[in-house]
Design a protein that fits this description.
Layout: E1 3-6, H1 17-32, H2 39-54, H3 62-73, H4 78-96, H5 107-114, E2 120-123, E3 149-150, H6 163-173, E4 180-184, H7 187-195, E5 200-204, E6 219-221, H8 223-232
Parallel strand pairs: 1-2, 1-4, 2-3, 4-5, 5-6
């Protein structure tokens, strides 16, 4: 293997996704209250803009797609909003949303093992958040500097489960899909999409997102099992 890709939420970072979303939008609504933006409209707009990023065809970055939709739905100064969001991710997001996650003391071990033999290690989290939101990596004891590349909405023009997201990563990293291992907890977004372009995959089952209509055929196991596998690579 020349490159190992890790999903973040639910893989490196154990996460209660429902609680995460509930806290995230509650705290975000408080931040935007000074703009007199209706919280319901804010939530609807963010979900719609996120959907646009998922469907992005590569002509724009996910960031451009998100803010195009945001501006079309909410009349406000986007430059000021971006400043508010940066502060939000550094403070309220980090301090309050953290309760939706639990510790994974093995995350840092996995990344260190993945780096053996000069392999590239990529944080292949779905790029629908700004880079500031990757502050949640610190909840695992890791930081963006621990990776050779991290995907976020500013440097990505595709999203999971679009297979082109993985092909684009390979192009940027100068590796072939067959020389990559994708590690994730989501059968559709991580495993099915990555394997469809020829990547090797490992399905982490601790916080499994499964889909009855999504057939995946790859090695699987707990995060502890993953550690043992990485030791053999």
């Amino acid at each position: 293997m020349k490159a190992i890709l890790f999903d973040l939420d639910g893989t490196l970072l154990p996460l209660d996704e429902k609680l995460f979303v509930d806290i995230y939008f509650t705290e975000l609504a408080k931040v935007f209250s000074e703009y007199n933006i209706d919280s319901k409209k804010l939530v609807e707009t963010i979900w719609t803009a996120t959907g646009d990023m998922i469907k992005n065809d590569g002509k724009k970055t996910n960031e451009e797609v998100f803010w195009d939709r945001f501006e079309s739905c909410i009349d406000t100064d986007v430059s000021s909003v971006k400043g508010l969001l940066a502060d939000f991710y550094a403070n309220q997001f980090f301090n309050k949303v953290k309760k939706s996650s639990t510790e994974n003391s093995l995350a840092k071990v996995a990344v260190e093992l993945a780096k053996k033999n000069g392999r590239k290690v990529i944080l292949a989290t779905n790029p629908v958040f700004p880079e500031d939101a990757l502050v949640r990596l610190k909840w695992t004891g890791l930081d963006v500097d621990d990776f050779d590349y991290v995907s976020h909405y500013s440097n990505s023009s595709f999203s999971k489960p679009n297979p082109k997201y993985f092909l684009d990563l390979c192009k940027k990293l100068g590796v072939e899909p067959k020389d990559c291992l994708m590690v994730g907890n989501d059968e559709r977004e991580d495993i099915f999409a990555a394997s469809s372009v020829g990547m090797n995959c490992y399905l982490v089952t601790d916080n499994l997102n499964s889909y009855p209509d999504c057939e995946v055929d790859c090695e699987k196991g707990s995060f502890k099992d993953l550690i043992e596998k990485l030791k053999t690579l």
